[in-house]
Amino acid sequence: MIDIFDNTILCKKCKTAMKKAKINRNGFLFRVMICPKCNEKLIHPLDEQEYHKFINLKNREFKVKMRIVGNSYTVSIPKQIVSFMHEQERMMDNVVKLCFEKMGRLSLDFY
Q: Left (φ > 0), alpha (ψ -120 to 50) or beta: where does 86 sit?
């Protein structure tokens, strides 16, 4: 499939050829085209779509059970979250960083 950003894109305001760039928003890396003349930005449609999926998952609350396995407790991570991260196969059996942020709040970071 051909990527739309592989073509020359003209700014709709000033008709100048836009340049490829990347911007970071909330930890998300977006591919963008930026006009060097008027600074107009055009976000790649697929990146914007993925970002909206992230926002929908972020705003959703999952209720999961805590279970005892041996001498530890386990909590299952919903498949929608793991699938979204596009690393489902690579993440299994990997070590993650777990932090006690404040009373009643844990943080889980994937590497």
A: left
